[in-house]
Automatic annotation (TrEMBL):
Residue intervals of the Solute-binding protein family domain: 406-675
Protein name, as recorded: Extracellular solute-binding protein
Coiled-coil ranges from the UniProt annotation: none
A Gene Ontology BP annotation from the UniProt entry: peptide transport
GO MF, one example: peptide transmembrane transporter activity
SUPFAM superfamilies: Periplasmic binding protein-like II
Top-level lineage group: Bacteria
Pfam families noted in UniProt: SBP_bac_5 (PF00496)
Amino acid sequence: MAIKSIRDMTQAKHWHRWVAASIVIIVTIFVASQPASAQLQLDYAEVGVPPEPGLELLQYEPHDIVYFTADSGGGWARVLLLDFPGRRPPSKPSGDLRFTVLGIEGKPMTAKWSTIEKIDLWEVKLEREARERIAAGDFVGAYPFLSILIRDFPNQKGLRELRSNFLWQDAISRAKRGEIAPTLAMLEELRRYAPEFQRSGVVRALSGTADRLMQALVDAGQLDLAQQMLARLEVDYQNERLEAVAKWKKSFWDMASGKRDEAIKAMEAKDFREARRIAREALYLEPELPGAAALVRKIHELYPMVNVGVLQSATVLEPTRIDNWAARRAGRLMYRTLFEIQGAGPEGGEYEFIFGDTEMSPDRMHFDLLIEPEKIKPPLDGIRGHYLADVMANRAIPTSPEYFAPWAAAVNSIELVGPQQVGFNLRRPHVLPISLLQIPVDGSWFGGQPGSPTGDYQPEAMKDQAEVVRYVLRGAPKTPTQPREIVESRLLSGSDGVAKLLQGEVDVLDQLFPADAIRLSKSKKVKVVKYPLPTVHMLVPCSGHPYLAERTFRRALLYGINREDILNGELLESLQSEGCRVLSGPFPAGIEINDPLGYAYDQNITPRPYEPPLAKLLLAMNFNQMEAFASRKKEKPPEMTPIRLAFPADNLSRVACEAIRSQWELLDLKIELVELPIGHTFPGPDEDIADIVYVSAAVWEPVIDARRVLGPEGLAKSSDQLVGLGLRRLEEAKNWREVRDRLLDLHAIAHHELPVLPLWQMVDSYAYRRELVGVGSDIVSLYQNASNWRLGQ
């Protein structure tokens, strides 16, 4: 309705009463039609003033309030924002004001300016609320009002002063509560926004707060953060010359000088470990400190040592261990392997025979191992052909502790051709027989004690909970620069490792979180390199849990994991990393299209998608099957006990398993997470601590590793007849075409039978500071070239 029609009424001074009455009728009809829970507050009144809504004001649609004069009958109405030029009411209004009352948008109205006492603008109300709350110290309450003003009314008169006062008073309040870092943030924001606001007072407060925060960081040992902050403050406030900056620049110089002197004393006392640590700290504190860089170089020359940051400490040293990254990494320092994988070629892995050379007959029915002692360094030069022949023979004897079924099935006879040559006749052509001979070589091969080292290093001491393990050089160094020690320090997390690498506390990181690798690759101080062979991540059943023994139940578990989301969201943090992908089987898929690394992976088998409804249906089917089977046997169905999901004590595994648990719990399953002891990646044979375990496996040579993953003696300990048949047919393959075809068949069998639950493939990376040279860029194991490492400065 239009108020304009009221002008003809005889009692014109009471026109607004008629408007109000009309609004009452309209609103009353509307409210009466609503349930009690939806009753609305009226946006007008015939008398008085509207109540102060406080924070509830933010729930209103933006509006102005029009107050009417007492002569016209009084009262007020909330109206949609009035269209004033620049949002300023006319100084000498005349005529009519056109407006729309909130809630009655379809009924525009007009009123004479002479009947209007005042108009309370929306932005004025917001500013009033903000000022009152700032004055009362309620900065949390003031912030939303101030935010709306900044967003919607940036040209509001007095807004700059209001915003500046908010930042200043909030900083004072936080300082009184001891919130140093937030106080500094407020002061810096104030300085950037309004440098003219109380200039000297803000600068003094900023300097004092920075001083307190620097002291807190130094006291907490966070020198890297303190230095970063000091460098930033020096650049940002170079014109102000903050007293705190000058004070702490001198303090860091004094600290660095003191550490330099301490390092010299430690070096003179031949405590090279401590000397190196302190000298590196001095150089980090003050890179320009005279003599610091030369001191670090001198200590390196006297006693080369490399610090390696690791996510998992090794408690066992097994260079051929498929499921234990730490054991495989550190085992390479202590033991050599008869055949060591160097990388991947077009037809399987590329291996090096540590005692010499190999020769394969064209029909692949015979090969020789040629020992070349003149090219081998001690103690490996002590090997003899007859001993090597005996070792190979023992691996083919079923009653021998060293018996290895695939080797026994492959070899027909062994012959000692000469003192330095051993020949092998095979039962059938084998595409890669040397892959069957990845055997750790210990000191007993040369007349020493069983288990004694053959590598360049040995651990000083090994403890399950050790945070630092030192691997000390055995014997004389091969070169003057060969590290005398390789020190492994266990990290709290991947981000902790990145920080320590950047500040120089560690020289190498052996394994990076994929997202950290992507971010760290941008640093000029660090080189990030991908390992050429990926790891396959899977869940492996490891107990007699009656439900996990059922294929239908395992399928349900796999359908209940959003693998794409966990991999891309949780592990990769939405960053792109080539080669990281969800898998449909237990073999690597390769990193690039048509990658020979993926010769065992069938690209036509797509991974099972995330289907929670299907997972629940399969669970229900499995429960019904179990009940029906038990009923036929007149027994009780097995109890559905909580599933114990175990994982190694590293950050990546923990994140993945926490996500898997949360998704399985959506299927109404009870899941218990079990963190394995440090250095352990699989429950022991006599340990009943888990039902299924998260495994990161180095399935680098599927032609041999298929049995190590799926076989009765492998990770899965599968007794499935189809799996067993697939493994036997694989081992009978005579050429690479047959190998590939039978591996693809085995992939299909594993996809159907699910002896393991495939998750994803990860392309791991390592990183090192650029002053460390000789690491290599195409290494399978971090310590593959450790004897050639050299630290510069």
